[in-house]
Amino acid sequence: MIRAILLIFTLALSISSCKSPEARKPISQKTGSFIKISAERNKKLNAEETAKIESIIASDTTKTYIASESGFWYYYNTKVEKDTITPSFGDIVNFDYDVKDFNGNDIYSDEDIHPRDYAMDQEELFTGLREGLKLMKPGETVTFLFPSQKAYGYYGDKNKIGTNTPVICEVTVNSIIQNQND
To answer: Do residues 145 and 67 touch, judged by C-beta distance below 8 A?
Structure first.
């Protein structure tokens, strides 16, 4: 009988001493203010760059600018009217381009860059140019106005293009070799 009471007492003591672990409280809590400040700064930067682009477009009445769905603007220097191909995933695009600041000063000339081959969406290329090439046909020359977030962004190119620099690129597609693995 004493054994039974002792066993019940031990069992009750062991059950009551078990409790679920408590979550540890963080030492410091972040309010998200950094994210809010960063978002506000980016909205302000985007508004300033958009206003500058709109100013460039308004002062250049000789060209017909097109606003892309991706957030950049462009016009055709040379447009190919016949129905030909535009590049898609894996196609090899040979093209020339230059890079200028919004004041028209050369950052990289096409002699600096040279014609290059680019495997569509399979190699590193800044976002705006990658999206712009998808709009072009062989033989076309297009001038793009890229806000900084579509160009080299916050980091620049760590060479001649600084932080948050919007750019103008004149691009000529020389040829498109279609991917044969479709």
So the answer is: no
